Q: What sequence folds into this?
């Protein structure tokens, strides 16, 4: 295997000079730099990044822990993270927890042992174990998409409460009064924030008594299927369903189809987040669009600012705006 000593011998310089060229440190004349770079190319020398990281206590890697990499929302978010990291010469290690607190804890430990420089985390629940672990080890981190109450830490998320309010207000403006909300877990803040937005819209319309139609489940297709079936048993039945994410919407759509209900002729269906074209939904859903790519990009930039000690003094709670897109899955309630 080619070593730094081989490069130094080929270029006619010291090993220290080769190291300075590789690390971009110290003064090196242009002529010497070109000789070293030519020797590196001719010998196909690959610098030992692990040895350098141990010396400078930096690996130029960050960890990204997601809860469901199969969801297009998180796939897009991850691309934003990867692009921002690449722009600054960092690599990303991706991990997926499937909403498991145990997997989250395991991955936090694994990434810490691998000496990542920082961590981006979509927490699985409100519980603070991972945050406490990271703070005790002085590892910079930023939370994505979800808050953890009672902790003042960096968070980049979207305005879930306002987005839910806007979706439900849209249904109310169409004439719906019996609106069921299909939430995720009550232990996840993005879910509880969306239910809070749903309840606020009902309260503003004088329909607080309809808030009992909120059903907590999970951010999965199975959870949406189960929650929708439960909502449909309520009497009188709802005229519209608000799904707290796109996978819940898929499950709800399947439940409606099995019940022989058409969207939107018999019942309206709206959702947070869009669906991939491969799902083949017809009609297309009325949705709240979240800037997932920007969320990942902004969170990574904030983390890198923390690593360079060039970030803001106080923990940041960055809330990105959302966008209501009205399509044909929402319509006035059917007569009767």
A:
């Amino acid at each position: 295997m080619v070593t730094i000593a081989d490069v130094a011998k080929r270029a006619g310089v010291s090993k220290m000079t080769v190291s300075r060229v590789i690390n971009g440190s110290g003064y090196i004349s242009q002529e010497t730099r070109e000789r070293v770079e030519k020797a590196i190319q001719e010998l196909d020398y690959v610098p030992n990044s692990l040895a350098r990281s141990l010396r400078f206590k930096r690996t130029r890697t960050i960890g990204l822990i997601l809860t469901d990499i199969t969801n297009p929302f998180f796939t897009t978010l991850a691309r934003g993270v990867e692009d921002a990291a690449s722009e600054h010469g960092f690599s990303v290690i991706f991990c997926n927890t499937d909403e498991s607190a145990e997997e989250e804890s395991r991955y936090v430990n694994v990434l810490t042992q691998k000496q990542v420089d920082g961590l981006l985390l979509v927490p699985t629940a409100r519980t603070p174990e991972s945050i406490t672990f990271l703070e005790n080890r002085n590892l910079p981190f930023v939370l994505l998409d979800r808050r953890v109450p009672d902790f003042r830490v960096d968070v980049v998320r979207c305005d879930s409460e306002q987005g839910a309010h806007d979706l439900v207000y849209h249904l109310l403006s169409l004439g719906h009064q019996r609106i069921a909300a299909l939430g995720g877990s009550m232990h996840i803040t993005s879910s509880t924030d969306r239910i809070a937005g749903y309840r606020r819209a009902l309260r503003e319309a004088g329909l607080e008594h309809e808030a009992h139609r909120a059903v907590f489940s999970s951010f999965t297709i199975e959870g949406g299927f189960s929650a929708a079936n439960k909502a449909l048993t309520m009497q009188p039945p709802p005229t519209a369903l608000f799904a707290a994410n796109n996978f819940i919407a898929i499950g709800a759509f399947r439940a409606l189809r099995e019940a022989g209900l058409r969207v939107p002729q018999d019942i309206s269906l709206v959702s947070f987040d869009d669906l991939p074209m491969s799902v083949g939904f017809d009609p297309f859903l009325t949705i709240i669009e979240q800037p997932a790519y920007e969320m990942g990009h902004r969170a990574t930039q904030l983390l890198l600012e923390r690593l360079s000690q060039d970030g803001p003094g106080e923990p940041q709670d960055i809330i990105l705006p959302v966008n209501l897109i009205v399509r044909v899955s929402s319509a006035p309630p059917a007569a009767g």
In short: DSSP finds twelve helices and twelve strands in the chain. The mean pLDDT is 91.
